[in-house]
Amino acid sequence: MKSNQIEAWIAMHSFPCLLKKQGEFMNSFKQNDDGFTGLEAAIVLIAFVVVAAVFSYVVLGAGFFTTQKAQETVYKGVEQSTSNLQLIGNVYARGTGTAGARTIDQISFTLTVAPGAPSLDLEKMKIVFSTPDTTPQIYSQNNTASAPPFNFTTKLNAVTSVGSMSSGDQVEVSFLVPNVAKSTKMNFELRPISGAALPFSKSAPGTIEVTNILY
User: Fold this and answer.
1) 30 φ, ψ to 5°?
2) How far apart are the C-alpha atoms of 51 and 32, rounded to whole Å?
3) CA quadruple 212, 87, 154, 182: dihedral positive or negative?
4) How far apart are CA 117 and CA 127, in angstroms?
5) Closest Cα to residue 203, out of 119, 109, 93?
6) How many CB atoms lie within 10 A of CB 203?
């Protein structure tokens, strides 16, 4: 066969090199590698953003919770150190006996709740009364007509018996005391269930009348 015929026969029966095709395929894959790298970076970035958001939410939640607890502690401390009770007007005393020899046997005064303070449970309030010559006596609330000694009554506007007192209410407190002579100093301490106690002192007048204002 002639040389040109041999070359034609080889060209007709030759096959492309598989390694060459594989190399071209790999090269084309490498050329598109930038797209996959960008996608992976975006996924990682999104993951970091999500983790950071969750962590920030947890930190903020913990901060808000701590702040709330701190505020509750402060409010509780203020509540316990501040009396919710306020004394309105004068403290009155009833005199008993004959003129010139009268003694005080009953005390009355009016209370209200401090502005912004919660309602007060009068049934759980205690009153401590004492003089230089007597031991302190603790009084409990009792609005029954047959209340025994060492109890006090609470009447809204001096008329209706009540067991609690809200802001704006004016409640008259009244209780019997051992006979107190003229010019005697009397010590009072009102102890509510919440808040600080309200202490005050009053003295009997030099001449005791049927109705007296303590000073």
Assistant:
1) -65, -30
2) 30
3) negative
4) 20
5) 93
6) 14
pLDDT, tens only, 62-121: 666 666 655 555 444 444 446 789 999 999 999 999 988 999 999 999 999 988 888 999
Q: Which of 156, 158, 153 is nearest to 139 (CA)?
A: 153
Tokens linked to 199: 């202490």
Which pLDDT belongs to residue 56? 74
pTM recorded for the entire structure: 0.63
Overall average pLDDT of the 141-162 stretch: 89
Site of tokens 């919440």: 194
Is 166 in contact with 119 (CB distance < 8 Å)?
yes
**Structural contact between residues 203 and 213, judged by C-beta atoms closer than 8 angstroms:** no
